[in-house]
Specification:
It is built from 3 helices and 3 strands; from the N terminus they run αββαβα. It is of the alpha+beta class and 100 residues long. A hairpin with a 5-residue loop joins β1 and β2.
Length: 100
């Protein structure tokens, strides 16, 4: 299994060709163990706070997932991937809740 540092170094938001909408402001990657005990990657796609439901089309979501998956595979990360989408505010609230 890769280390968190290796994962962070292999992945850069600026190298991804993401769609203009929704506006992806960050991608958080975290190595986890799935329910079967296998290595996996939790991927939190952080969207701009002004992202509306009309921006979250199934095609845009598929493109974001495919682009991130392709980048991870290109860098040798073939672990299972679990995606979550949240706005900046939602991410901050969840992070604050888990840290406290």
């Amino acid at each position: 299994m890769a280390t968190q540092d290796e994962l962070n170094c292999a992945f850069g938001l600026d190298e991804l060709e993401l769609p203009g909408k929704p506006n992806v402001v960050d991608v958080k990657l975290r190595l986890i163990e799935d329910s079967d005990g296998d290595d996996a990657i939790e991927i939190i796609v952080v969207l701009a706070n002004d992202t509306g439901d009309e921006d979250l089309t199934s095609e845009a979501i598929k493109q974001i997932k495919r682009t991130i998956t392709d980048s991870l595979l290109k860098h040798g990360h073939c672990e299972s991937r679990y995606f979550e989408f949240s706005t900046e505010q939602e991410y901050k609230e969840e992070y604050d809740r888990n840290v406290l």
